[in-house]
């Protein structure tokens, strides 16, 4: 079956704006509920956030969700009720498994610089697992032209971070102008342009903030038109089956 593509433009995302936050939502989130846009494959959340200096998300709860955070600019400080504490910056991959329940905060401690990051959520295979936290420096790997596997639960896959979902993996590519990668073949593929402009063969051009949702993805070639960074979720199942 040939791949089908659903292109979602940056300007069509829901936007939450407060004095300290600008958050753009690829899927229904918070007050931005769309019954026909609650997820794709196993991906529940793809939030593109900018947090002002000396502000951030106060302590709040999560349960039964795998949260992966990828920082594009600035630094984000994480602290949680399990005693984990870390500062996330470009090139440092982070995953928090909320499991049976956890409280955490995310702050921009800089006095002057906003922090820009993408936060993504998938569900775990099992509910009520023990909460856990992981962060790994992978910045040196991003100098190679290719897809780097940031997080995966797929058996046999090497990744910086462990996901508690056996059907999902997140890849990232940081590409120079003209650089190309072959996208994975998978039943569900979510390609998000975190920065830059790219072309996905047979599916068209995408610019910063755009995404394409591919069903029965067949390994299309992605080419950067300028220096670009893309986040690619490879998923071999969908919610509910």
UniProtKB/TrEMBL annotation:
<dbReference type="GO" id="GO:0046872">
    <property type="term" value="F:metal ion binding"/>
</dbReference>
<dbReference type="Pfam" id="PF17954">
    <property type="entry name" value="Pirin_C_2"/>
</dbReference>
<feature type="domain" description="Quercetin 2,3-dioxygenase C-terminal cupin">
    <location>
        <begin position="156"/>
        <end position="235"/>
    </location>
</feature>
<feature type="binding site">
    <location>
        <position position="104"/>
    </location>
    <ligand>
        <name>Fe cation</name>
    </ligand>
</feature>
<dbReference type="GO" id="GO:0051213">
    <property type="term" value="F:dioxygenase activity"/>
</dbReference>
<feature type="binding site">
    <location>
        <position position="62"/>
    </location>
    <ligand>
        <name>Fe cation</name>
    </ligand>
</feature>
<dbReference type="InterPro" id="IPR012093">
    <property type="entry name" value="Pirin"/>
</dbReference>
<dbReference type="Pfam" id="PF02678">
    <property type="entry name" value="Pirin"/>
</dbReference>
<feature type="binding site">
    <location>
        <position position="60"/>
    </location>
    <ligand>
        <name>Fe cation</name>
    </ligand>
</feature>
<dbReference type="InterPro" id="IPR003829">
    <property type="entry name" value="Pirin_N_dom"/>
</dbReference>
<protein>
    <submittedName>
        <fullName>Quercetin 2,3-dioxygenase</fullName>
    </submittedName>
</protein>
<dbReference type="InterPro" id="IPR041602">
    <property type="entry name" value="Quercetinase_C"/>
</dbReference>
<feature type="domain" description="Pirin N-terminal">
    <location>
        <begin position="13"/>
        <end position="122"/>
    </location>
</feature>
<comment type="similarity">
    <text>Belongs to the pirin family.</text>
</comment>
<feature type="binding site">
    <location>
        <position position="106"/>
    </location>
    <ligand>
        <name>Fe cation</name>
    </ligand>
</feature>
<keyword id="KW-0479">Metal-binding</keyword>
<keyword id="KW-0560">Oxidoreductase</keyword>
<dbReference type="InterPro" id="IPR014710">
    <property type="entry name" value="RmlC-like_jellyroll"/>
</dbReference>
<dbReference type="InterPro" id="IPR011051">
    <property type="entry name" value="RmlC_Cupin_sf"/>
</dbReference>
<keyword id="KW-0223">Dioxygenase</keyword>
<keyword id="KW-0408">Iron</keyword>
